Amino acid sequence: STRDSPEELKLLEIVRRTNQPAKALPEDARIFCFQGNESFAPHLNGEVWWQKWDFATRATSTVEGDGDGYINYRFQCKDENGGLVCEKGQWGEGQRVIPNIWGRIGYHLFFHTTKFDAHTAEDVLNSNWLLAELYQRSLGKVA
To answer: pTM (2 decimals)?
Structure first.
């Protein structure tokens, strides 16, 4: 039977050898949990970063066209005192606020649902995505 084949026995030996309890953390190690307005992912799947952004009004651009590849038109947001106030988004109509959008310690930027046409850092920095403002702020290019 295949249950007793050499391949099966080898695999079972690897599982037995590697199936060990995790080692304890050193005494001086510290673990932090960032959540709420400190979370590294201010939006559940990152789509908010791909809205067309008007840097002058600090709000979602209402001008269609002249996009930089992919633009998410489902959002209507504005920057209010460092929070992103959205009247609509991928959830539909209804206000939601993403607090502390610009002031987090770090950002987990993950985009697994879309392919983008930015090939260089300059492509992103010069785009009209909300993400461009985040990068520009992190580099001290936006007040």
So the answer is: 0.71
